[in-house]
Amino acid sequence: MEAPYQLLADYLRLTNQALAALSETPDLIVWPEVAVTDVLRWRPDLRRALHGLVEDAGAPLLFGVLEADTDEADEDEIYNTLYLFSPGGGEQRYDKTHLVPWGETIPLGEALPWLKALVYSRGGGEMAAGRRLTRFQLPDGRVFGCLICFESTLPNLAARLVRGGAQFLVVATNDAWFFDTAALPQHLWAAQARALETRVPVLRAANTGITAGIDCTGRLVGRIPDQIPGTSLVEIALPTGRPLSGYALGGDGFGWLCLLACLGFVAVRSLGGRRA
Length: 276
Fold this sequence. Notes:
The structure is a single chain. Strand 4 (76-86) and strand 5 (90-95) form a beta hairpin. The protein has two domains: 6-97 and 132-244, Nitrilase/N-carbamoyl-D-aminoacid amidohydrolase; 250-276. The chain is built from seven helices and eleven strands. Helix 4 (155-163) runs parallel beside helix 5. By secondary structure, it is of the alpha/beta class. The strands form two sheets. The chain has a six-stranded mixed sheet, covered by helices on one side. It has helices spanning 6-21, 44-57, 113-121, 155-163, 183-198, 246-250, 253-275; strands at 29-30, 36-39, 61-70, 76-86, 90-95, 135-137, 143-148, 168-173, 202-206, 211-214, 220-224.
């Protein structure tokens, strides 16, 4: 395929090189957030080409892209989206539900036009938020959930996905916002924390950040350093017959119970002191 953008051409080249070097077909190919920088609905040629790649590979492809839907006012709403394309033409979709303030959404933007103009001048904008989490299903029946970029810092999202049946998680991220700063490893640590909390493995695909597999103990496997183009073949052990972790089962409930217990203890001590 003739890629319209160098970024997409790089992903295609790396993917084809990795596939050619493998002796077996992978279960899943993962590209980062917004690997395809077009709105897919407006580019049927790209959709056909990506389905062609999937058919040639014989493996599902999870990739980040922009997408558009028409709202009630007949205007296009733009989403930060992950698609899973499967052999045979199958498509599954997740639209990012938690947007980055002043990057993908602009709080107080209408009341403060200068703030809105500043955000747009720095490369930000306004996107529509997805309405629900998606549990993707591979052709062999295995189920996984996805977190896009900033969402990997939100523990409750990962817990909800695992509680709903996800056997592993995928974090697709665009870390170019962080340049070459300490935020790159910090963002990786968030994905490791999600693996530890939920006790399920995590696959993390980043463009300029750190790409790696993370097992359910938080250990990194198949790590690609930041700023280095490359591919990694990662094998993960899925949890089978193991009960959900405490956090996956109860989410933040235990933390709130601890807080209420502490407040109750303080109140009792305070009232006891007054009576004395």
